[in-house]
Fold:
Amino acid sequence: MKEDPGSFLPLSTAALHILLSLAGGEMHGYAIMQDVQRQSEGKYRMGPGTLYDNLQKMIERRLVEELGQKAGDDDPRRRYYRLSALGRGVLATEIARLDSVVREGKLRLQRPRRA
Amino acid sequence: MLRVFYRWVLRAHPRYFRQRFGDEMQSIFDRAASPGTEVGLLVDAVLSLLRQWSLRPQFWEQPTLAEAADGVPLFHTLESSKPRAAALVYGALLSALVLNGISWTMGYAWNHPVYLAIKQPVISPPAFWGVRGTPSQKVSLAAEPPLYTDQGRVVLIFNSPVYTASHALGQTKPSKPEPESPDASSGSRSTKPATAPLGKQGMVF
Structure:
């Protein structure tokens, strides 16, 4: 049975940043942490505990797939993760929702205030 | 020192979480060089420990197939990592050995059959099989020829030159069969009168 991406919304801040990072390709945990810091220009820092707690939930809900270890990696303890098709759909739906929120917010802020 | 504390905190996590992510969390801690970052990571690990034990009871143990399926039959991949090359070679070797053994057993059984002695029953045909035209006439069963068996096959012989209609009715003794003409043995049919003994006809089952 196909799951509705809208049923996963709204995403938490951590989940949104993790899905955004994985949308660029498969990554290991440390690379996700660094990418999240870069996305938020250093304003949002995520520790490993928060990262793996969210990854665990998203793997369970089949938004993210665990690829396991990669041969040739400099640290054999690393495991790689990637976005599933469902996860990509959820991210697209969340981005569309946030886009409508941003547009509505801009419209309301541009209107002159009535006294 | 902080690394030892961090390791202790990781060991205090639920077993399933620790087995799954413990090594990676330790790896990230090892990459953090500055002491300030290490303290932050230690605090994060303590918060994670509290969160896992208090808010995530569903992840304390590895979910079973029944829980994952939620009542719906599905296929579930337990391990996403690829199998080792040695395991693949071992599996291929084992499969080849098993296949070879089965092939050898089948070949041996084919070349060494086991015979069972089965006593074949003697079946007498109906009396009128040797009679032409009048099946209602009474026929002596003792004069009927038995069925000939040939290694399991049943050979029905009727209209034979030996057992003619008059013999089947018990009026005459069986006569010797006439030797077959050369043209009959070569397969061509001879045109003889109806009173003459009929040619050999039979059915093999």
In short: Chain B touches chain A at residues 17, 20-21, 23-29, 31, 40-41, 43-45, 47-49, 51-52, 56, 59, 63, 79-82 (CB under 8 Å). DSSP finds seven helices and three strands in chain B. The CA atoms of residues 40 and 200 of chain B lie 107 Å apart. Residues 180-200 of chain B have pLDDT under 50 and may be disordered.
